[in-house]
Amino acid sequence: MLIKKAEAPLQTLFVGFQDQDNLGLRYLMATAGAAGHHTDIETFSDDPAVLIRKVMADKPDFIGFSLIFQFMTAKFAVVIDALRQAGVTAHVALGGHYPSFDPKEVLSVVNGADSVIRFEGEATLLDLLAHLGRGTAWQETEGLMARLDDGAIRENRLRKQIMRLDDIPWPDRGDIAYERSERPTAAILGSRGCPWNCDFCSIRPFYEAQDGALRRLRSPGDVVAEMRHLYHDRGVALFLFQDDDFLATGARARNWAGDVADLIADSDIGGKVAWKMSCRSDELRPDIIRRLITLSGRRCRM
Ligand code: SF4
Question: Which residues of the chain carry a pLDDT beneath 50?
Answer without folding.
Answer: none
